[in-house]
């Protein structure tokens, strides 16, 4: 299956829009695991096993592994994800952004070394920084569009006087992604949950693209507002999927031996809140 086919299948199978972000911080690990970077795999695997039936996708953040020389543990975790939830897509959160042969190597890293189904990318250097990833048949890529950090305004919220209609930068990125850049039909956009009004503007420009929406949970994004702004359906079938990511709120729900059970409880509550927002209940 292509990335989008996997995403839609996982949404139906688990009745979910929740993505669990895997951002392991050894300093925050519970009990005997605390501070031990050699236990990154063990911690993440326990979270995965506890929440596998609640998610539409997984999102490991590569920096949290690389900072602790734990790339081998990430490879092991990717294999574990395939065993535990073979039909749930994995989005490697790498935010790469380079051109030519360097982008080709980053694409090889994401899709061949780690076996990811999709990857996050920065579009700042233009289409030739995106194209090498699109050569991988059926693989997805989410382009940073309207991020939730305060500094996002520095560039993303500026107007482009040279483009007809003078769109904001993030609107222009959405138009390019919905149109000429989407050569393999597997592109999506990253938009922050803390800006629901701007999620809605992105959705108006890119009416069918999947949206990866971080920021629900510890960052304070509103689940109901996020779903209303970004998710679209027709005849009961999703036409514009959203992937709502929560990391810290799930991972660190408890600092005790019950950390995996506590993570599951938060995942269930978040998944249910997102699903309820679809029906307005």
Tell me about this structure.
This protein has helices spanning 3-14, 40-51, 62-66, 71-84, 100-113, 131-134, 169-178, 196-205, 223-230, 248-251, 259-279, and strands at 18-22, 57-60, 91-96, 118-121, 140-146, 187-191, 211-214, 232-234, 237-240, 242-246. It is an alpha/beta fold and 281 residues long. It has one domain (3-279): Aldolase class I (TIM Barrel), CATH 3.20.20.
CA-based shape = globular
Structural class: alpha/beta
Residue runs with pLDDT of under 50 for 5 or more positions: none
State the separation between the terminal residues, measured CA to CA: 33 Å
Number of domains: 1
At CATH level 2, the architecture is: Alpha-Beta Barrel
Largest sheet data: 8 strands, parallel
Number of helices: 11
Jot down its keywords:
281 residues, alpha/beta, TIM Barrel, 8-stranded parallel sheet, two-stranded antiparallel ribbon, 11 helices
Write a short abstract of this structure:
This protein is of the alpha/beta class and 281 residues long.
What's the structural blueprint in terms of helices and strands?
Blueprint: H1 3-14, E1 18-22, H2 40-51, E2 57-60, H3 62-66, H4 71-84, E3 91-96, H5 100-113, E4 118-121, H6 131-134, E5 140-146, H7 169-178, E6 187-191, H8 196-205, E7 211-214, H9 223-230, E8 232-234, E9 237-240, E10 242-246, H10 248-251, H11 259-279
Parallel strand pairs: 1-2, 1-10, 3-4, 4-5, 5-6, 6-7, 7-10
Antiparallel strand pairs: 8-9
Helix pairs in contact: 2-4, 2-11, 8-9, 9-11
